[in-house]
Design goal:
single chain, about 525 residues, alpha+beta, Beta-Lactamase, 5 domains, 5-stranded antiparallel sheet, 17 helices, 15 strands, about 55% helix, about 20% strand, rod-shaped
């Protein structure tokens, strides 16, 4: 083979080798680009794309489509400014980012961006400068951290809300300690209540807030032990302020756990004013109770004195009646009797012819007889023959016969026993009350009959004096009812006086009357002992 042919063959072989090598190189490049694209397409959660020197997007991978919502066909040819928020675009942030990447080779891109649908996405990434020797471009890669950012912002907002709550909780002490009770957080409310600033109290044991006596009794340690064992410990006691004064706290202690005990939180409300008011009220109630007991004792003493005075008054009145009755009977009547005897002797010695003198003497004797009768009746009225042992019903029976005999008033007595009253003063007083009421019937009622009813009740003695007379209006004053209109009857003590004297014995007086329907006067005396003594004979 000629030399020329050999040279041509060698050139042909070299071309074939070069062609094969080029084919291998192209295949290797294709496979490399395929692998790179596969890598870029597989980067889920990462937005990866490239732009030319002016920021026009010329490649767009699946991760970018997932993050921003634009498909490749929609975004290619658009400026990357479209992925920025309106406020960042208005501030020229896209241009600043490319300028920084062009100058420094990289520009951090950690900010909120905008999706196709207008929602926001937080990207943590960077823009890189691309150089291929001909025209610069940019490569941008960023990770979608929206969920993480939202969680951080939610946590920040939650912490901010918690901080605002703690700072706004006026009147509440809220603080935390470590597991040993050393204070590591302190809200303004705690500062206001206890007087310690945050800088002063942090690092101190919470025992400094307890009173000396509670510290001596190990109350702080017991409180933490209870909270650790039961999940809560009540804290309702007096505490100590920085200045040594006392403050009453109503609160609780809770353990703080995140799998293990990290410390405690203590929340308490300042109830000092309320507690002081309650203690002052209790002291006032105690003093009031003591005062009431003293007052009750004094009232009882005064009541006993009043009852004693009433009894003395009744006794004195009765003694005076008896004295006057004795004067009328033993003195005045005896003198009148003596005068009658003398007149009789004188009349017998007068001459028969002295008819005028005889008649005058006889008239005087008759007048003296009337005076004796009047004084006898007056003596009986002043001091009736009442025997306490006979009972009230016997005395009233005698009074009824007396009222019929002297005043022509029939009186019916309704009593199922003697009604013996051990208290002689009360016995005399009640008899006088019945007599005064019957006198009122004679004086005012215009009645044809009257009735007196005695009855024992659970709460004492009931006496009713009634008549079938003309009655009187409710508006008529008791003084008018009691006012005497007959000169020949004893003067009445009056219903008001009777009512008042009854109250001295704890009793009461009730009047029921209407014009044309008669009158009923009811006396109530709360003396239970009488019923036992009033058993029928």
């Amino acid at each position: 083979m000629s030399e020329q042919k050999q040279m041509d063959k060698k050139r042909s072989d070299d071309k074939e080798v070069s062609r094969v090598e080029d084919a291998h190189a192209e295949e290797a490049l294709r496979r490399s680009e395929a692998r790179l694209r596969l890598i870029l397409e597989s980067a889920q959660g990462f937005a990866i794309f490239t732009t030319d020197a002016d920021g026009i997007i010329n490649s767009w991978y699946e991760g970018a489509a997932q993050v921003f919502g634009w498909s490749e066909s929609e975004i290619l040819g658009q400026r990357c400014n479209v992925t920025f928020t309106p406020e960042d675009r208005a501030a020229g942030e896209p241009e600043k980012e490319r300028e920084t990447a062009r100058r420094e080779g990289i520009s951090p891109d950690i900010r909120w961006h905008q999706r196709k649908d207008g929602s926001r996405v937080f990207i943590n990434g960077a823009m890189h400068l691309l150089r291929d020797g001909q025209q610069d471009g940019f490569f941008k890669m960023g990770r979608d951290e929206t969920a993480q950012r939202q969680a951080e912002e939610a946590l920040r907002r939650s912490e901010e809300r918690l901080r605002l709550i703690l700072e706004s909780a006026k009147g509440y002490a809220i603080f935390t300690t470590d597991a040993d009770g050393v204070i590591n957080s302190w809200n303004p409310g705690a500062g206001q209540i206890f007087g310690w600033s945050e800088a002063e109290i942090l690092g101190q044991s919470f025992e400094v807030l307890f009173t000396p006596e509670d510290r001596a009794a190990s109350k702080p340690q017991k409180e933490l032990e209870t909270a650790r064992a039961e999940g809560i410990a009540p804290d309702i006691r007096w505490h100590l302020r920085k200045d040594g004064s006392r403050v009453f706290i109503n609160g609780v202690v809770h353990p703080l756990r995140d799998g293990q005990l990290n410390g405690f939180v203590k929340i308490g409300r300042d109830e000092t004013a309320q507690r002081q008011a309650e203690e002052a009220l209790r002291e006032s109630q105690k003093q009031l109770q003591s005062l009431n007991e003293t007052l009750e004792q004094r009232v009882q003493e005064k009541t006993a004195e009043v009852h004693e005075l009433a009894s003395d008054l009744i006794k004195a009145t009765q003694r005076e009646r008896q004295r006057i009755s004795r004067v009328l009977h033993d003195d005045l009547q005896q003198r009148i009797y003596a005068i009658q005897i003398q007149l009789s002797f004188l009349r017998d010695r007068l001459p028969i012819e002295s008819e005028t003198a005889y008649g005058e003497v006889s008239g005087i004797a008759q007048e003296l007889a009337e005076i004796v009768k009047i004084t006898r009746n007056l003596s009986i009225d002043l001091s009736p023959p009442i025997l306490p042992g006979e009972g009230l019903s016997h005395a009233i029976a005698w009074l009824a016969s007396r009222m019929r005999e002297q005043y022509g008033l029939p009186v019916e007595l309704q009593a199922n026993g003697p009604f013996v009253i051990p208290n002689e003063d009360l016995h005399v007083f009640l008899f006088n009350c019945v007599r005064e009421l019957l006198f009122n019937v004679v004086k005012h009622a215009g009645a044809s009959r009257a009735a007196v009813a005695l009855a024992w009740l659970d709460d004492g003695l009931r006496i009713e004096v009634g008549d079938d007379g003309k009655g009187f209006p409710d508006t008529m004053r008791e003084q008018e009812v009691s006012r005497s209109r007959q000169d020949d009857l004893p003067q009445s003590i009056g219903l008001p006086t009777m009512r008042h004297q009854l109250t001295l014995f704890g009793g009461s007086l009730i009047i029921n009357s209407k014009p044309g329907a008669g009158t009923q006067v009811i006396l109530m005396v709360p003396v239970r002992e009488m019923q036992q003594a009033a058993s029928p004979r």
